[in-house]
Model the fold of this input.
Amino acid sequence: MDTFDQKSLNQLVGHAETYVAQLQQAGLIRTDLPVPVMTYLMTALKVGVITAPDLVGQDHLPSMEQVAQALSDLIRRWLSPEQLPRETTVGKQFLAEWLSNVINIEEQLE
Done:
């Protein structure tokens, strides 16, 4: 997090809320939680994953593969809507745009 300047952090957070709202509107993630709550919890989870090695120590860390699989399952279960939409093209477009924004920010930092 220290490598990002404030402008970049604001772009990432701002895009995260926009992205979550778009996914909710498309019916691709649950809509019963407010966008700020979802983005706050996702941020807390990201920061926790980043800082956990310093807190628990390297000797107690599971493999990154285990963490990635468990985290993927956790988020999928947490965000899945009750009914999946028949059309997922919109969600794929949102994901591509979000990834493009992240890559642009990374390139600006280099």
Q: What stands out?
A: The mean pLDDT is 83. The chain has four helices and no strands.
